[in-house]
Amino acid sequence: MPKLTKQIVDNETQYSLDLPVKVLQFGTGVLLRGLCDYLIDQANRQHVFNGRIVVVKSTAGLSDDFAEQDGLYTVCVRGVDSNGETIDEAVTVGAISRVVSAQDNWRSILQVARNPHLEVIISNTTEVGIQYVEENIFQNPPQSFPAKLTAFLYERFRTYGGKRDKGVVVIPTELITDNGLKLRECVEKLSAYNELGKLFNKWLKYHVKFCNSLVDRIVPGKPDAATQAQLEAKLGYEDSLLTVAEPYYLWAIEGDDRVKKVLSFEQLFDNVIVDEDISYYRERKLRILNGSHSASAPLGYLSGFDITYQCMQDPAMSKYYESVIYDEVVPTLPFEDQLAELKVFAGDILSRYRNPFIQQKLIGITLQQTSKMNARNVATIQRYYKQFGTVPKHFALGFAAYLLFMKAVKSENNQYFGQRGESFYLINDDQAAYFSEQWQGVTVETVGTLVNEVLSNTKIWDTNLTKLAGFAETVTELLTEMMNNGVKATLEKAIL
After folding, report:
1. Which NCBIfam families does the record match to this protein (predicted)?
2. 268 Cβ contact partners less than 8 Å away, ≥ 6 residues apart
3. What is d(CA 388, CA 81) in angstroms, rounded to the nearest whole number?
4. What is the pLDDT of residues 397-445, one digit of tens each?
5. Are 296 and 320 in contact (CB under 8 A)?
6. Which DSSP category does 132 fall into?
7. What are the angstrom distances between the C-alpha of 292 and each of 3, 66, 151, 369?
8. Is the pLDDT reported for residue 177 higher than 50?
9. What CA–CA distance (Å, rounded) separates 147 from 130?
10. Helix (H, G, I), strand (E, B) or coil at 195
11. Which conformational region is residue 476 in: left (phi greater than 0), alpha (psi within -120 to 50 degrees), or beta?
12. Alpha-carbon distance 160 to 116, whole Å?
């Protein structure tokens, strides 16, 4: 079976392969490939945006898969529509021009800054990527994402600032509130630290538009070997970058008419929204979709499940998802006038979780679980107390499972591993070392001390969660039961 290359794609895809580069993208992840790059590709097919993408890969080494496939990859859109009809479509995406390693070829990336056609910068570097790190942006390369972006923007300013003033629209898609404003703040601090000057700061202010945005599409990425083989047999070629995505998507971008003009593809898609205020879309997605994911993933994983779909086939886990969403998230959202619409949105999310084609790995959802719990669920827990004055028992159950998930049983090369049954899993979390230390010597009898220590850590939660009456006690009780009787048994007792 041949490898996917430009020689074997049909003529319909050839539209994009000679278009100018208009987008610089930080990140090679499946979400960007399955949503943003996919939509740009679809717009190019309709001769609207007419631009390709240079992707910055932060890790060392060449991007062999992209190079071998001429930047092409397949997105398989699979799911069930509202009428119960199966959707199973495959699209060969040709929007990516090339992938460049920042570690190996930073100068090549800076050359893109001098490209007169460039209009847009997109990023997805996980929630912890947008953080200010005091560093020299003239390193080869700078280390942090904001420093790389600052260096790139400074190179563009040196080329065009004060002449034709070719600014850009910057759209971070990291799942943090006000991601555009926070990224701008990092760039401004780096400009001051590196003494880039008043003219650069003026150019930055008037010609670089940082947009808050949010993205929503379940893109689990590469399927398992059997599904991969089945899809490739149907396609007639091998694709190392084959990506599976659900039919639903949303890309909401906070911007004005200038942003709308640059993002010309916005006119083509009902679920690509450019608006001056996207807080409603952000809040409902962050709390209902992402919040339920983060509350449920450790609970489901330690109960023996590997993907979300398996959870939704289990009576206890399925009821847990429904209960945490309908009973504890939706009632606390600050949009009383949209309550009916929010319930419909919640129902749609549960239907998306039940999509049999999407193999969304729970262990992947737990990436940076601590920061996600804080960003997605702490405010909901606080709102629940304010509204109902009692413990949100489903969030307490999820929190107890999260604490147990963070228990490391061994460490190797500064990596920490938990245990499920006879197998070990990587705790991929910046707080892994902290939790490893906290769990040292803890027994069933003393686990309450750990719970109080963690919940009172204001550096993690930005608040003292032990001040929420009964929350620490409930979490301790549930965690104790999990340690004595197992997670699945505790879940079933609590939910059924």
Report:
1. PRK03643.1
2. 42, 43, 46, 48
3. 36
4. 999 999 999 999 999 999 999 999 999 999 999 999 999 999 999 999 9
5. yes
6. -
7. 39, 34, 37, 12
8. yes
9. 10
10. coil
11. alpha
12. 9
Which pairing describes strands 21-26 and 120-123: parallel, antiparallel, or unpaired? parallel
The strands making up 52-57's β-sheet, listed across from edge to edge, are 96-101, 52-57, 21-26, 120-123, 168-172, 208-210
- 177: Cβ contacts below 8 Å, ≥ 6 apart: 282, 286, 375
Query: 442, 415 in Cβ contact below 8 A?
Result: no
Closest to 120 (Cα-Cα) out of 249, 18, 209: 209
pLDDT value, residue 107: 96
Least Cα distance to 30 among 70, 69, 84, 74 occurs for 74
CA distance 270 to 285: 17
Query: Cα separations (Å) of 279 from 224, 273, 275, 406?
Result: 36, 12, 10, 32
Q: How many residues does the chain have?
A: 496
- What span, in angstroms and rounded, lies between the C-alpha atoms of 364 and 489? 24
**Rounded to an integer, what distance in angstroms lies between the CA atom of residue 87 and that of residue 78?**
5
H helix runs in 93-247, sequence order: 102-112, 145-160, 179-193, 198-207, 225-235
Which pair of structure tokens corresponds to residue 146?
């904001």
Q: Which residue has the tokens 């600050």?
A: 334
CA pair distance 57, 102, nearest whole angstrom? 6
Question: Using the 8-state DSSP alphabet, how is residue 483 labeled?
Answer: H
Please choose, from the candidates 371, 393, 376, 375, the residue with its C-alpha nearest in 3D space to the C-alpha of residue 468: 393
Joined together, the tokens standing for residue 475 give: 């979490």
Question: Could you give the CA distance from residue 119 to residue 141 in angstroms, rounded to a whole number?
Answer: 22
The identity of residue 27, as a single letter, is G
Res. 58: pLDDT tops 90: no
Q: Across residues 329-356, what is the average pLDDT?
A: 94
Give the Cβ contact number of residue 414 at 10 Å. 7
Residue 221 pLDDT grade (very low, low, confident, very high; cuts 50, 70, 90) = confident
Closest CA to 28 of 120, 94, 100, 78: 100
Q: What is the pLDDT of residue 64?
A: 81
Tokens 């010309």, residue located = 264
Amino acid in the structure at residue 221 = G
For range 162-186, the mean pLDDT: 91
Confidence check: pLDDT of 12 > 60: no
Residue ranges of domains in the chain, CATH in brackets:
11-275 (3.40.50.720), 279-495 (1.10.1040.10)
Q: Is the pLDDT of residue 62 over 50?
A: no
- Residue 75: which of 15, 13, 147, 157 has the closest Cα? 13
Looking at 358-409, list the stretches that DSSP marks H as alpha helix, in order from N- to C-terminal side. 362-365, 369-373, 379-388, 393-405
Q: Are 437 and 449 in contact (CB under 8 A)?
A: no
pLDDT higher than 60, residue 61: no
Whether residue 478 is predicted with pLDDT greater than 70 in this model: the reply is yes
